[in-house]
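Box 3.1 A note on notation
Throughout this textbook, protein chains are presented in two layers. The first layer is the amino acid sequence; the second is a token string describing backbone geometry. Keep the layers aligned when reading.
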Amino acid sequence: MIVYEIEKSNFITILRSGAFDDSRPIGMLSDFKWKKLIELARMHDVIHFFAQGLEHYYYDDNLNLSEEHIAEIKSLMQQTPLHTIPELYDFDKVHLHDTKLEGKLQGIVSQEHKDMEKSYETMQLAAIIIENVNNILSGRSFLRGIVDLGRYLRLDGNRVDFVKLEKWLQQTKMTNMAQLQGNLLIEAFGFTAEELPFVNHHDHRVGQVLENAITTNVTREGEKWEFRQSKSGFIVSSPQQAIRSIRHSLRYRRYARKEAYATIYKGFLKGLSEIEE
């Protein structure tokens, strides 16, 4: 989906207003362009935050939504329940694709449950970060996850043990991925470095990452690899689809090299396991 600058700006501004109650000016769009923004909100599972943001611009002259679009938004909200953060991110169910890193992650989960002073808020935040890692590397939409990360930090960030979190991130080699997510909050949603203790540098690539996050066609279910067996017995697939998947994962190898390569490998194995007999 091609999304122009004013459309991206309006989309993020309205989303920012709905999720974080932080309103900035919006530009007037055509009926067709508003339709694209509604579709983006649906694709990225942020329709509730988008709708809430629109309410803040009710008296804005640039909010020229048609009655048809308003009805569509209401319908989408009814079709899509707004799940809570604990429902979406479970520390006991997080995983990584790299075998060694997965072992370390599960060791952290097990050890934390044995800790008499375990921090539920730190576990919850770690679950959001790791789930976002999976979505980022596999090509699934992760914009909702970034919003949820910011919402949780604003709501319960003062109860998070960031020293413990940093240790977990270092052990699982996820420090750079966490910093990428924090930089996305700064770039798109107005967060400050003080709100993100696990971020210690600005990532100049974050603008392009945000661009990709908004415009990528997430309806491809994370670039699922499709393999099948031909009548002659040979395994065939869509080369373009496989190449897109590999390129996508490799795009983030600077943030999590081992996990990026493991994601490619597991995607290949999953495709083979689903060969039609």
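The beta strands are 227-229, 235-237. The first helix runs from residue 5 to 20.
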